[in-house]
Structures are given as structure tokens and as C-alpha cells.
Amino acid sequence: MRPISRINTDIDFELNGKQVSCLAVPNSTNESAYGTVTIPITAINNGQGPTLLLTGGVHGDEHEGPVALMKLARALEPEEINGRVIIIPCLNLPAVLAAARCSPIDGLNLNRIFPGERDGTITMTIAHYVAEVLAPMTDIQMDLHSGGKTLQYIPCAMMNEYEDKDLDSKCFAAIKAFGAPITLRDKILDSTGLLTGVFEEKGVVAMGAELGGAGMVSKDAVSIAEHGVMNILKHFNIIEGDIVTPDAQGRSPTKIARIQDTQCYVMSPDDGLYEPFVELGDRIEVGQPIGQVHYPQHVNKEPWTNIAPRSGFLLCKRPPGSVQRGDNVAIIAQHIEG
Ligand code: ZN
After folding, report:
1. Ligand 1 centroid, distance to 305 Cα (angstroms)
2. Rounded to the nearest whole angstrom, what is the distance from the C-alpha of residue 17 to the centroid of ligand 1?
3. Mean pLDDT across the chain, nearest whole number?
4. Does pTM top 0.85 for this prediction?
5. Backbone angles phi, psi at 8, to 5 degrees
6. Residue 93 and residue 172: Cα distance in Å, rounded?
7. Coil, strand or helix at 241
8. Which domains does the chain have, with CATH numbers?
């Protein structure tokens, strides 16, 4: 019988202790006939408890999550935990090495093609491994993202609403415990093809985070990620200890927010140079001008004003000034009671 996946690993997920190895994904090229892409994975297993899967680097230009998860993978020891923690800091390794959102090998965006295909391209094969091998053994899942090179978020932990009320409140309590500046109840984007969608369907506690972006790694974003992930481990009693609240980290308490609808994803109305009128966290009223597009080849042409289609606050912006029509330049979110 052929194996579930074409990806090989010498990790035995049932074994107690700490195993540091890789997922070997076949990648036959001109330079390497039987070559593999080797994605680092750390599995730590001890005693009774849930299985937590932590992933980063699903998009290769989002560096904060991989940094925090590499540090955790080195530091966490089996005697500290109850349960199983599987850490893959750079799930789309070729994209991470290229500092690109999509894979340089097949051009695919890993977070749009789940559940993948066993015999598909390399990115398809990675998605399929997560969906078919890792997801069935996972009780709790968190996937760390950020805005990448073209977006910048106020750091937030997030979930999509579940129909199952128990699961919904369990997940909501966990993302609040993460303790990011914003706890985002619903990002609205269709979960089709997303990594978290696979876990949501299986009734797993599925969480995500957007930790910053602009292609940067900031001290604050890494600190929020590290504290957040440790808080998740504590929240589910995988490690012992008290949650380190935002207050104890010298920050304001988390604010609960949601993205009301797809209109909150504001696009550039034209090609040109985008001048924003609002900064991250600024209050926005519907109808308010939030930016304008200038025309480098027509200096006398009046800029095209971008009008806010919804009220709320600026959760995410586009750092690059050069825009094309349809580029996402702002995400407006709304504070809600938590
Ligand atoms: Zn991402």
C-alpha cells in the first residue's frame, strides 16, 4: 500500500521526548535528481495532554512567527510539558528562504490551496501532509502570520466563528489568553483553501495571528508572539504557570474587534503613488478620506481620493507607496464588547 504522503520524516510522533528533524519533500530538479526540500520540525512529547501544532512561515515574507517559533523549538524541553507540541517554524521553507509570499518553486500560495494534493506540486504536497498526517493528530492549532512585505497589521490573534458554541467559546478564550494588542473575532475572509479551514472543519481549536509585517522583524512583535504562544501553552495546561497578561508585559489590555464585512478591505482605486491619511489604530468614520492616489506621469492631475466605506479603526495598512488598482491599502476593523 502506498504511504499517505510522499513526504518522509524519521520523527515518530508517538515517541516520548524531544525529536528534532525535518520533513523531506521530494523535489527532483536538474541540479538534484532525487533531491528533497527539508523542512525543520520539532516534536516534543511527554505525559498526558493535548496535541498542539504550531506553524509559521506559511508565507515566506512573514518573519516574526518563524523567529518566535525557532526560539521556542530550541528552548522547550519534554519535562516542562504535558502533552505533545509539534513546531514547524517555516512550513513553506522555499518561500521563507526566498523571503517571498509564494513558493519560488511552483509559484503557489500555501495558504490558498488546502487541503492540497498528495501527488501535486511541492506546495500542494506540503498542504496535503498537514491536512492528512498532522491534522488528524492535532487538538489545538495555531498558525502565525503577519502582513508580509505588502501589509502591516496591529499585532492580533484571531479565529473564525464556529457554529458549535462550546468550541467557539473555547477558541475565543484561548485567543484572548494569547494577549495580543487586538483579539480578532472574525477576519471574514473565506476559509476555503486556508490552513485553519482544515482544522476548523475537524472541530479542532483553530487559531491564527497577524503579528506585524512590512517585511520586518520588530522587537515588540517577537515579544508579543513569544508571550502569546507561551500563554497558549499555559492556557491549555500543556505547561504550568500563570498567563503573562499584556499588562504584565507593560502593554494595554487586549481589545476585542471584528471585521464587519468584505467592504472593510479597502482597495486602491487606481495605479500610482498612494498617500495614506490615517495610521494604524486611528479612528475612521464612514465617508472620511483615508488616502489618495497621485499620478507620477501627470503632475497636474488631481489625486483620486480614497473614501472609507466603513467606520472603525485602521487595523492594517499597506507600507509600499507604489500601488496598482485593486491593491489592498487598508483594513478597517470595529471594536466590539468581549
Ligand atoms: Zn500570511
Report:
1. 28
2. 31
3. 96
4. yes
5. -105, 145
6. 30
7. coil
8. 17-257 (3.40.630.10), 262-335 (2.40.50.100)
Q: How far, in Å, from the CA of 185 to the mean position of ligand 1? A: 17
Helices (H) and strands (E) in the chain, counts: 6, 18
pLDDT, residue 47, reads: 87
Interval between CA 80 and ligand 1 midpoint (Å) = 30
Residue 33 near residue 132, CB atoms below 8 Å = no
Contacts of 169 (CB under 8 A, 6+ apart): none
Ligand 1 centroid–CA 143 distance in Å is 9
CA distance 108 to 123: 6
pLDDT tens digits, one per residue of 41-68? 999 999 899 999 999 999 999 999 999 9
How many CA atoms are closer than 13 Å to the CA of 156, on its beta-carbon side? 25
Distance 88 CA to ligand 1 centre (A): 15
- Tell me, in angstroms, the distance from the centre of ligand 1 to residue 244's CA: 26
| Grid cell locating 132 | 492528512
In the DSSP assignment, the letter for residue 264 is G
